[in-house]
Amino acid sequence: MTAILLTAPLQGWASALDDVPDAVFAGRMLGDGVAIDPTGGTLHAPCDGEVLTLHAGGHAITLRGEGGVELLMHIGIDTVQLGGKDFSARVAVGDRVERGQPLIDFDLDALVRGAPSLMTPLIVTNADAYRIVRRETDRVVGIGQLLLTVEPVAANTPATTTEEGERIVRQVRVPMAHGLHARPAAKIGEVARGFLATSWLAKDGSEARATGAVGLLGLGVRFGDTVDVIASGPDAAEAVVALATLIEGGMGERAERAAAEPVVAPPPPPAVALPEGQLAGTLAAPGYTIGTARWLRVAEIEVPVDGQGAAIETARLDSALSAVREKLAATTGEGAAIRAAHIAFLDDPDLRDAANVAIADGRDAGHAWRAATRTQAATLRGLGDARLAERADDLLDLERQVLGELTGTVAEAMTFPAGTILLADDLLPSQVMAIDPASVIGLAVERGGPTSHVAILAATMGLPALVAIGAPLNDVTDGATLILDADSGVLHVDPDAATLAEARAHADRRIADRDAALARAGEACVTLDGVRIEAFANLGSIEDAKAAMANGAEGSGLLRTEFLFLDRDNAPDAAEQAALYGAIAAELDGRPLIVRLLDIGGDKPAPYLPIAPEENPALGLRGIRVALAMPDILETQLRGILSVRPVGQCRIMIPMVASVAEIAAVRAVVDRLRADLGITERVEIGIMVETPAAAVTAATLAAHADFLSIGTNDLTQYALAMDRGNPAVAPGIDGLHPAVLQLIAHTTEGAARHRRWVGVCGGLASDRLAIPLLVGLGITELSASPRFVPELKALVRRLDTHRCRLLAERALAAASPAEVRTMVRDFLQEQGA
Known about the structure:
- This protein is 36% helix and 20% strand.
- It is of the alpha/beta class.
- An eight-stranded antiparallel sheet has the order 9-5-6-7-11-3-2-13. Strands 19-26-25-21-22-23-24-20 form an eight-stranded mixed sheet.
- Helix 16 packs across helix 18 (631-642).
- The longest helix has 23 residues, at 497-519.
- The protein is globular.
């Protein structure tokens, strides 16, 4: 028999089974295969065949394809717990299906919220008869695109047999709440293979080998059913006892436990008691504005999967690339720099080679180009730096330009009428960067998170933004009048005349306050009672440094350096780094520049750094752990920083610190390099407090660091055990949670024992409601987005530190972040701030 080709049943990112966050699949207990993280909501047939089983919950299906190859497809992880909700089967057991035929529809958005993972394994379950000879992974695949090539195991392979003899039978009642699905079937098979016996399960006259997952699923065993456990062979009695005990034990899924501790979709955020016409959201970027609702709806350009032959498709792609290159080269004005970057991508040999490989496999030029660009962009999508996100989205923008040429599609302009409050189900950083702030004055997003890249960009651009508003946002129609009160987390829809008039008066006051703050931005930042608070800015480029100076920043509390290391084939040398750090330092005109050492790894890989993919990158090799594991990278960066003149303007900040040993290791390298470079001046070395460990041991760490700066974004996600990139938990991620505030208090108290100053360079420094609390907790340096600096200074000038301390003490004892925010709003109103 010739090789059998299996095509992708879903569109999405194809990965090895090792990446699936489930030991049953990752351990290949059900067989070998691949997994897809889907971007669509329909599962398709990977080959012609027959439906063998369809789980009652609709989340899993098995097929018998050409030559008898048996395939299991399991949509998501732990989706059996959903009990069939959000799944709709289009086929039934016994149906004949054709390659590409829709099998199961599912609600992708609901599964994102309700399942631990959407990774969907495609498993060859009869591995004794078939082996995989080729698999397409670590790339974007489309429905119908080649995914697996399998071939039959040689017919003369000797089979392992056992003497059948007498059958031993024992009846058991199934206590698993969801019956016999993939995970229990895998465990049964694993146990059965440990005995020199052939074993089966039987129900209603049908039986299946205990080692055959497809057959077991085909029995349709449900909670409460009685099945026969059967075995024959040398240790049949022991096998029956082991299998019966395993099943009767429930394998962690007993109905009694399910009733007491249900594993279901996370509940929606608690409903906020708001009057009719108001929607609750999560603050992503502060501000207050009034405008008109306009929805962002951008249709994806459709391209066929299969091409007309490699020669034709190669010529089509060549022509499209040339046409786009000519248009980009002719571009002048403000967009010229971005277009130049696009031209560089067009000339990237790796990008073109990836497209050529897909074309050689029979794909359409547009399909091949889309796969190539999205594969390269995927590694940059989750980066926490606006400029890095820009490079990823440059690729996606370039994808649309080339596909437009290939299909004749006219590009949709990202233009909106003046006074637009833009609504979207979600936003990409590239879409935000394409917005004209003169027309779009605010953002309201159904999904998203408060510390997402979109939130960072919105704050930098001065656009008020609410995220995680939820499904009710879909009821807002184009043209509706909106009051976007991001500071209060409320979107008012079609307010009455009186409310609108009051809102306009409030907005006018806000504009006047902003203008007044900008006029005094160059003055020192001092509280009412004379306490000096340094107002710094977070930077990621020379352009950011210019904006910071224009807004009165007194220095930079955070220079992100990752953008120098990504989107390239090798690490920058010391000279290149020194030139960039020096240029930014020059823009600051002698003011302090705190340079954060490379914070890379895990979800922010560089192609030239040997960092393996990790199941949980946030807890893996990142930050200073990477630098210490790769001393050449660390030494080169430190040499670049120390080369900036005047010596001492650049301070060094270590990310993700969790121990004294990490500080000591960096300081030892700095001291050695100072000696090599003939530097006699002391260079300050500080740490970022981003882990609860660093906050709790702040007193110990402060004895070895010159300063401490709190990264509230990471500290919040680690303290609350909520992934800041996961929209399902976005409403719960709030840096004003009392637990986070207590960690900040612990940090300032510990640092004070050694007379070390503590700053905040995370998102809270740009949150107006956080400022009084941070001042009250002893923070003396705030590093915010450049545009927020004037407002930050104006607010600090109205604060009395004694009253702020009293407010902070009350906040530390609060029950929730909502209570804290209400408390601060009342405080600011009382203070006339």
